[in-house]
Amino acid sequence: MSDFAVTRRTVVKHVVPSRFLPEGERSLRIYLPPGYQETISYPVIYCQDGEDFFNFGRIATIGQGLILEEDWEPFVIVGVDVDKRLRTSEYMPGGSRHEVYTRFFAEEMVPDVERHFSVRRTPDDRLLAGDSLGAAVCLSLSLQRRDLFNRILSLSGAYYDHSMEQAKAAGDLSGLNLWMAVGLQETAFETDRGTFDFVTLNREMHRLLVSKGARVDYAERDGEHKWGFWQQLLPEALAPFLGPARRY
Description:
- It contains nine helices and ten strands.
- By secondary structure, it is an alpha/beta fold.
- It has a single domain (about 5-240), classed as Rossmann fold (3-Layer(aba) Sandwich), CATH 3.40.50.
- The protein has an eight-stranded mixed β-sheet with strand order 1-2-4-3-5-6-7-10, with helices on both faces.
- Strand 1 and strand 2 form a beta hairpin.
- This is Esterase family protein.
- It comes from Cohnella candidum.
């Protein structure tokens, strides 16, 4: 195998057919690590807001660097694209499309990826990653399907009332692992649903999850509700799940 084949950054497009989504399909962008082989199975990150994670978060470039320069075990990254006009209805618990989206994700998308790509099939080797409402849908997926998902990377989670209600209604959450961070300049962020104090929302969700037995790494840092802040956090956020000294 040539050096170029080992070091090049490979991102492929993939379309998943769906019985649940009205559009009948959803597009993915998938990062394959250096030297990817079908005979090897890889840990996998499933990212909400896939286009943003790849373009603004630069997660494929960051992942490539961690694998090649920091000697991390190779992993696959799956970015699930979203129509921004439908994002709130799909990602927000209680939203009009939330149930069909989460069913698509768990019952169609993950099995389709596992059929077409060499990714591992256990909860301990799947990581859900999301920013803002993307973090909220990651938590919702895990609370609904603990058999599939028990690891979450949460960047400035938009944990509104329905998310809090979901978490309060959950039973014992031991075995659920999260890395959560929020920016200290996110105390009055304007959304299409009003102005919210994301620091308070994340503190409250952190306390609630810990009270139910979840294992949570929680951080508050100088930063705003934007990708410039979240991109800087990604190497630290990924390390407990995928780094050489992984804890989860």
